[in-house]
Amino acid sequence: MIDMRRTQDFSTNACNKFFKKSVVEEPNFSATILVFDRADLCAILLSGSLDTHVVPRLREAAKAATAGKKCNYVVDLDGVTYISSTGLGFLMYLLKQQREFVFLSNPRPAVLKPFNLFDIKNLFRYYQTVADLGTQPGLTDEVISAIRGQKGSLRATGPHKRGLATLAEYLENEEEVQRMAPYIHGAGQQGRITLPAEEKYAGVLYLFLEKAFGQAGELLGEPIDEAAIELISKELMTNAAKHGYGHQKGGMVEVGYAVDTAKIEVSFADRGRGYSPGAPAEDGLPSAGLAMLRGIFDELTIAPGPEGRSEGLVLGGGTTVRMVKRVKPKAGP
What we know:
Elements: E1 6-10, E2 20-26, E3 29-36, E4 41-50, H1 55-66, E5 71-83, H2 85-97, E6 98-105, H3 109-118, E7 125-127, H4 141-152, H5 174-187, E8 192-196, H6 202-216, H7 226-244, E9 252-259, E10 263-270, H8 288-296, E11 299-304, E12 319-326
Parallel strand pairs: 4-5, 5-6, 6-7
Antiparallel strand pairs: 1-2, 2-3, 3-4, 8-9, 9-10, 10-12, 11-12
């Protein structure tokens, strides 16, 4: 499998004498960072899935490219197919580093959903096309032409792949395929499932929740779409792997759901260190993942992990997240 994780830095040369460029690439994600020193401007062109695990490298690359100085930012989101709560935290970080403005290209609806859940859309300024930036001070025709040219050469990631197809980004060999196969099969057959607490298993969790919400789809007045299921799956699994188990191997999560005529209820439990509501947010947003989930569900409660014997690593009291989506009554005749 080709390793797509790389960061390239390009020094100023005769061809691009008025800007510096660096590139960050990972599977299903690519970023080009342009710094125009004379305009105090940093343009960040993104493509693919802005998952939690790519944000630290992106943030460090942006910090290194600007040498920690405050500047104005233009962030192109046209090619972004998904943004995690940590990805939103990166944008909030840019707000703290701005000189005068942070401009975002208008996100597609699936990407805009997290902005609305946090009610932070109005913190940013937006543009439709690169040409619209021409009215801003310092954004000369030369700068805009350079941004447009680099955007055209940004590595395409192809159509966004949800559910089972997302697993392909992590499957390196036949042994790993065989290891994940029972979980994939179980996701489509059972009302409860136990999964390894690793971020790559968010794809299996997606399949499990897709079945759950599919059963409730005819009852829900506001069906939960693919983008929301992806967001739920990735936020839950990332929180368990990172905060519950500290990325230690052997941790497991237990997931179940129940559907009746009044609601769909989903439970997600780990046996990690336990929930700490006072822990500082590392991504610039308060309790980011949980706050995002609260925006999707009607009820969200947090309790200690389940009692009794458990499968896998046990680090503490664990955490159970209970999420409820109520059935909306159908309109009368």
